Amino acid sequence: MTTLTEDTPRWWPDTVAVLAGASLLVVTALWVGHGGLQDLTGGGALSATGRLLGLWASDLLLIQVLLMARIPLAERAFGQDRLARWHRWTGFTSFWLMVAHIVLITLGYAATAGTDPFRQLRDMIVNFPGLLLAAAGTLALVMVVVTSIRAARRRLRYESWHLLHLYAYLGAFLALPHQLWSGSDFVGSPVATAYWWGLWGLAVAAVLAYRVVVPLLRNRRHRIVVDRVVPEANGVTSVYFNGNDLRKLPVRAGQFFHWRFLDGPGWTRSNPFSLSAAPAEQIRITVKDSGDGSSRVATLKRGTRVLVEGPYGKLTGERYTGGPVVLMACGIGITPLLSLLGELPYAPGEATLLYRVRDDASTAFRQELDWYAVERGVRVVYLTGPRGRSWLPGDRTDELTGLAPDIAAASVYICGPEEWAVQARTAARAAGVPAARVHTELFTW
């Protein structure tokens, strides 16, 4: 899932970019201090350039790990979606720098030895300390990069993609022995040693702390279990959970967890599901059957233990202080918006929900939405029909201002598939809603 929000101060992303750029400058300075410029102009240009690109690749690889280490400050500031986008861009850049590093180093050594580049590469892998492990790590990263291309992701189930993506950690750590044993730029001076060990230590500590220790402690405290499973619509199922003191679970309406259900094989694979009701003594998720991980939800038994990682997402009412609010949902995107309906402090008549569904059989929570309409004065508009080119059903041409007359003064929350949500966001901006009041969560990965 992806979150686009303007709550974060505008200068924060620039600060992150400056810090990342500063780390590359530090790496470059260490390369210069270890004779990089002399080598560059002294006949070893290929090898010297290859060394520099390898240093940049390693630096960005560790930054990539930090971006998805689930550091709470970063998650709250940017949301997992923006961090995932940066993670993807950084990963592709690091990968191609690594490829260039391998090519240039091989060509440089081959030119010096007067041998064939392919034979030189083979000899380096076999004879250089740590390079056999680095080659295995490179293959793991190649697999991760190939499956991260958009066309490949569309052909994979989320569970398969997520499992393959974990090999990025393996690729990163298999490269470490090569860097320490063969990479003189990593250990050529006390400053270089301190920098690289510090960055490696920070990455490892962040992953262990926030991807392992914090989730384990949180699950041990709350001991979440399945209470009941309720069908909502065609292929849509809600699950209610009990646990110890769930009111103290640090989650807000609109956020999501990564869920693991301890009901048999496959429990190690997690799936991101949003809360579909404001958190209380019980919590609820609602899932559409779209793959192995989601289809098993309908078969969960009462008492099944659950492990959660999170919460994540910035589609919350943290900055909402009252006034008109418009919620725009498509399909299963209704789930976080329904939880927001239960938490936001809007007055009767101030909230409008535009709910885009394919047909009546796909409409979930109709009775619950009827209750919100009667008890809290929510105006619910069902947009029913086949998907067309517009975010509206079919060939409808209704203006957004006709569906939600006060939208220009409203806080707008949008959730649904990526293409639809982008179109809905564009429509909201065209209707006069400032970017700072448009909050969008996309169902993508």
UniProtKB/TrEMBL annotation:
Q: Which GO terms describe its molecular function?
A: 2 iron, 2 sulfur cluster binding; flavin adenine dinucleotide binding; metal ion binding; oxidoreductase activity
Q: Which residues cross the membrane?
A: 12-32, 89-111, 131-152, 164-182, 194-213
Q: Which UniProt keywords apply?
A: 2Fe-2S, FAD, Flavoprotein, Iron, Iron-sulfur, Membrane, Metal-binding, Oxidoreductase, Transmembrane, Transmembrane helix
Q: Coiled-coil intervals in this record?
A: none
Q: How does it sit in the membrane?
A: Multi-pass membrane protein
Q: Which residues form the FAD-binding FR-type domain?
A: 219-318
What GO terms fall under cellular component here? membrane
* InterPro entries, per the entry: FAD-bd_FR_type (IPR017927), Fe3_Rdtase_TM_dom (IPR013130), FNR_nucleotide-bd (IPR039261), MRET (IPR050415), Riboflavin_synthase-like_b-brl (IPR017938)
This protein's record includes keyword Ribonucleoprotein: no
Q: Which locations, inside or outside the cell, does it occupy? A: Membrane
List the cofactors.
Answer: FAD
What protein am I looking at?
A: Putative ferric reductase
Q: Which organism is it from?
A: Paractinoplanes abujensis
